[in-house]
Design a protein that fits this description.
alpha+beta, HIT family, subunit A, 5-stranded antiparallel β-sheet, 3 helices, about 20% strand
């Protein structure tokens, strides 16, 4: 059964797209830790990051770096944190989170953003990449 993220890749579920190439997709987390919280995924479904081929892993990291640099331009923050946890969705995903304090990376503390705010944020980040 395809993961939630595979359904997003296939266009079955909408997302707030930030960036895309032939092998990767970046979109906003709809349950974000901070404004601009972005997920970078490989389009090919793989459950665990260490199960990826080394070349696919390195390509995902390079894609994530490109997105993080755009995120840093678009969202004022001290740092862009990167986390790979992968317990919620069985599809490799890299969290890119604008950080101003350690609490911003706490996955127990979320913020609420409207659909309009998410769309504007996605456009702002995308324009900065």
């Amino acid at each position: 059964m395809p993961s939630l993220f595979t359904k997003i890749v296939n266009g079955e579920i909408p997302c707030y797209k930030v960036a895309e190439d032939n092998h990767h997709l970046a979109f906003l987390d709809i349950n974000p830790n901070a404004a601009g919280h972005t997920l970078c995924i490989p389009k090919e479904e793989t459950d665990r990051i260490m199960d990826m081929k080394p070349s696919a892993y390195m390509a995902l990291m390079a894609f994530s770096r490109t997105v993080a640099l755009g995120l840093r331009k678009a969202v004022p923050c001290q740092r862009v944190g990167m986390s790979v946890i992968g317990l919620e969705v069985p599809h490799v995903h890299v969290h890119l989170i604008p950080l101003n304090k350690m609490d911003d990376v706490n996955f127990q503390k979320k913020i609420v953003m409207t659909s309009e705010a998410l769309q504007k944020m996605a456009e702002k980040i995308s324009a900065s990449i």
